Write the C-alpha cells for this entry.
Amino acid sequence: MIFQDPGFELPELPADVEALRSEARAFLDDELKAGGFEPVCNAWMDGYAPEFSRKLARRGWIAMTWPKQYGGHERSAFENFVVNEELLAAGAPVAAHWAGVRQTGPLFMRYGNDSIKDLFLHRMARAELFFAIGMSEPDAGSDLAQVRTRARRCEGGWVINGRKIWSSGAHRADYMVVFCRTGTDADGDRRAGFSQLIVDLKAPGITIRPIYMMSGAHHFNETIFDDVFVPEDRLIGKPGEGWSQVVSELGYERSGPERFMSTFPVLIGLVRMAAADCDSRRVVALGQLTARLWTLRRMSIALLTLLAKGQSPEVEAALVKDLGTCFERDTVEIVRGLVPTRRADGPASEFDVLLAKCLLAAPAFTLRGGTNEILRNVIARSLGLR
Ligand SMILES: Cc1cc2nc3c(=O)[nH]c(=O)nc-3n(C[C@H](O)[C@H](O)[C@H](O)COP(=O)(O)OP(=O)(O)OC[C@H]3O[C@@H](n4cnc5c(N)ncnc54)[C@H](O)[C@@H]3O)c2cc1C
C-alpha cells in the first residue's frame, strides 16, 4: 500500500490549476447570487438538478478527463479534482450526473463495445442521459456474490428477472447498469458467472418502487425486473466477467473528494460561528477538523495520481473512504454540539435546516459504496492481519 511506503511522497496539486479554481468559484458565486441553487450537504447524492448538470456540461466541467472522441475534454485528473472540490464545497446540486460520470462512463470506455460507446458516452457528457447503479439486492449488499438477479439468453439478447434494492435515483435515471448472474459459478468460484447489462429503465417489465429516507426524501428505490428484454449489444464486456469489471469501478467509487466533503457546508458554518464568537471550543474543533480534512485531501490526491496512471488502488481507496466517511460523521456530531440550542418554537435559520438535513443523511455515509467494516476487512487483509 502506498501509504506504508517510507519513500512515498504525497503529491501536491500543480499550481496551474488554481486559475481554474478561481473560475469555478466565480461561476458558483454568480449562480448562488442568481438563486441558481441552494447549498446542500451531501450534494452529490441529494442535490438533483439536471439543468444545473447541463450548465456544467456546457462549460466542459463534467466528463472533464474523458477523451474528446467520447465527448470529454481531455483535461487532467487534477483539473477535474479542483472543479469537483469547488462544487462539493459550495453544496452545488451535482447528483444527476455524479455517479454516471464517475464510474459508469469509465466502465463503458474500458469494457463497452462500439455501440455502447457511441450510444451513451456523448449524451452522458452533455448531461442528457443519467444512469443508476444496480448492484445491491435484499440479501446481497456487502457480499455481492450472493446476487440472484439472473439474465438468460434469448433470441437477440437477454431476459432479466430479479430485484435490486437501494438503487439511488433509479426513479429519475434513464438506464441502469445491472450486475446479474448469466452463468453458474465455475469450480466453486463464487465470483464466476456474473455479467453487467445496460437496462433501459422505461422497458416493459420494470417496476420501480420508492424507499423513503429517514428525512422523508425519495432518494432510492427497489427495482424489480420481470422478464425484461435487453438487446445483445447492451452487454458490457464479456459474459461471465462481470466480477472483475465491478471491482474495477471501486477505485473510482471510493477515493474521490465526495467521500470526505459531503459535510463541507456544515464545516463552513463552524468557520462562520468561530469568526462571530471566538469561543475556544469552536476554535479547537475547527483546528482538529481542518487538520483531518487536509490529510484526507492529500491522500485522495495521491490516489488520483495512481488512477491516472491506470492502476487500481483498491486498498488505498478503502482507506480514504473509511477515514473520509468517519470524518464526515464526526463533523456533523461535533458541530451539532457547538451550535447554540434553538428554542423549539423559535424560527430555524438556514444553517439550522442545513445541519438538520445533514444529520438525517449522516447514517448513510459509512454504508453506501461499501460499509466501513468491509473496507476495514480489505485494509486488514492487505496488512496480512486476516
Ligand atoms: C445512501 C445509499 C445509497 C446507495 N445507493 C446504491 C445504489 O445506487 N446502487 C446499489 O446497488 N446499492 C446502493 N446502496 C447499497 C449499498 O451499497 C449497501 O447498503 C452496502 O453495500 C451494504 O450492504 P447491505 O445494506 O446489504 O448491508 P449488509 O451487507 O447486510 O451488512 C449489514 C451489516 O453487517 C456488516 N457486515 C456484513 N458483512 C460483514 C463482514 N464480512 N465483516 C464485517 N462486517 C460485515 C456490514 O458492515 C453492515 O454493518 C446504497 C446505500 C446507501 C446507504
